[in-house]
Amino acid sequence: MIFIVSLAFLIKSSDVFVTAAEKIGLALGISPFIIGVTIIAFGTSLPELATSIASVYAGSSQIVIGNVVGSNITNILLIIGVVAIIGNGINLNYNIMEIDMPLLLGSAMLLWFTLMDGQIDYFDVALFLVALSIFLMYSIKKKRAKIEDGDKLKLSYFLFLLASGILIYFSADFVIYGLKGIAEIIKIDESVISLGALALGTSLPELVVSLAAIARKNHSIAVGNVVGSNIFNTYGVLGIASLFGPLKIPKAIMEYSIPMMVGITVMFGFVMALRKVSKWEGYMLIVFYVFFLYSLYKIAPAVN
Asked: Alpha-carbon distance 221 to 43, whole Å?
């Protein structure tokens, strides 16, 4: 109950944060895709970041890598799959293959290479944060959108950002507390639970935001949200969480889950090559997600 309730508070507070951040972005004249790939994507990744930092302080740093890898897989397979099905396909008017997709593929490959030694050192952290900074600078330099009449910055936006940020912090602590208790009860390693249950829970904001974007026929925000969120998970969540303490990298996750994440990211690149995702491709992504959940049963004994 603690896990479910605190996760609900975490998701809701993240939603409030994202709404305020989106309004600030629009008031500053940032284009919809950039809002999706930066402000909203980073905002919807707050649950991953908050729970990762909390897990380091709680002495369960193996949750971090499971949360990041599981969230990246969930974002691509579940969110893009569901959005493609409900939206009767996804069509982009933006060339995602020019810069954004290579950056996403590069982040997945870089994560794999840096973790081959089974640890994240300060050089890796610096590399992640530099890569994240480059991505941010590239996004900010893109063409700004026209500011519509009535789009003005308000103090209330920043107050909502502050209040929701505080709630995110405390909610994340209780999420990790509940997760550790669940792991003890069912006798499954915390990193495996983070790959499945925690990753799914912390990815719900991305799903809600993407579905809302599809309802408004704004496919760019839906896809940009996933791309930006995955890049931030890899560079931002891992990089920032590593600053609070050393991270444990379970061998089974390194040998199985991370290669799977890289393969799924490459597949996503091929799917988006024509700037669209058909409805049947959405169904296939859901099938792959079910297979991913089933595969967790295989690695659970290995992790233990």
From this structure: 13
Domain count along the chain: 1
Q: Which of 289, 292, 269 lies closest to 82, judged by CA?
A: 289
Residue 251 Cα distances to 51, 62, 138, 237, 256, angstroms:
21, 10, 35, 20, 8
Expressed as residue numbers, the domain containing 289 is 2-303
pLDDT of residue 146: 46
pTM attached to this predicted model: 0.79
d(CA 190, CA 222): 30
Which CATH number does the domain housing residue 49 bear? 1.20.1420.30
Cα 260 versus chain centre, distance: 16
What's the pLDDT tens digit per position in 62-88?
888 888 998 899 999 999 998 889 888
Phi, psi of 67 (to 5 degrees): -65, -45
Q: Amino acid letter at 286? A: I
DSSP-derived secondary structure for 41-87: HHHHTHHHHHHHHHHHHTT-THHHHHHHHHHHHHIIIIIHHHHHHHT
CA distances from 254 to 116, 258, 262 (A): 8, 6, 11
Neighbour count for residue 214 (Cβ, 10 Å): 20
Mean pLDDT of the chain: 80
Q: How far apart are the first and last CA of the chain?
A: 25
